[in-house]
Amino acid sequence: MMRAVVLCEPGGPKNLVLTELPMPQPRPGWVRIAIRAFGLNRSELHTRLGLSQGVTFPRVLGIEAVGVVDACPDGSVPLGQQVATMLGGMGRVFDGGYAEYVVVPCSQVIQFQSNLPWDVLGAVPETLQTAYGSLSVGLDLQAGQSLLIRGGTSALGLAAATLAKEIGATVIATTRQMDRINALLAHGVDYAIVDQGEINVEVRKIFPRGVDAALELVGTPTLSDTLRATRVHGTVCFTGMLSNQWTVKDFYPIDYIPRGVRLTSYAGGASDLPAAVLQKYLEQVAANMSTLGPIHTYSLDEIPRAHADMEHNRVFGKIVGVIKS
Predict the structure, then answer these.
(1) Which pick of 22, 165, 194, 285 has the fewest CB atoms within 10 Å?
(2) Coiled-coil intervals in this record (predicted)?
(3) Pairing of β 295-298 and β 318-322
(4) pTM of the model
């Protein structure tokens, strides 16, 4: 048997119940991971609230995890190997990372080697994958360009800022809370703006023509304003939905998208995070060359509180569930 946090039906944080389940058994082509830590993500909040399509209940949530391989029928991944896994149906189509063990396809594990604590390792995979893909695929960000991060104090926003600065971009990041401005600046962003719903005027005081690139993490309520903060031939990448609002009502592109501004999106999976990129990032973190931002840890029996903290934005940075420190 193993311990796992199960969501029997959509609802509040109390619907996440710690229970015991049979140990999952991997079939050929799959691998079992003894989980050491797992990041919590807004998409799991969406699932708990009943906003995600195609999810059946009861379900163990969790779209990512890190740990060590403890069973692999076809021998394609060595036993004891440190791995990360994410997405590919985790926590939606099949049980995910809010547990002591998870079974996933071998194709969605990423091998790595690190002596970092497990809570730190648990904060990395999905956040890094999304930040890396958003900047490289979504925005094709280049050295010398300016980047606006809408939702800068989220774990994804902080990771994107770190990667963008390493590329050589100038970064503007937003927060809705004045007391987090200094935290953003300490993280390395060049400009921090308090977001009260419209920021395009403030952005253009810094970059009169508008920014070269913008990463939209808040969602559709701020997307129109983010587009207006972007220069002609600049690009806005829609990646996050911190607001829980996914669609634009009565979308008329010619009226909604400013002339000459490009709108794209990004979503990826384990195959979109090269093992070499993950390994390099972990080594940079270990050498204090890269920073993850704040990490907030919770045990399995504290996951309902972690969800409440995430839902009500009580903390900024990455929330991580820890099985073993």
Answers:
(1) 22
(2) none
(3) parallel
(4) 0.90
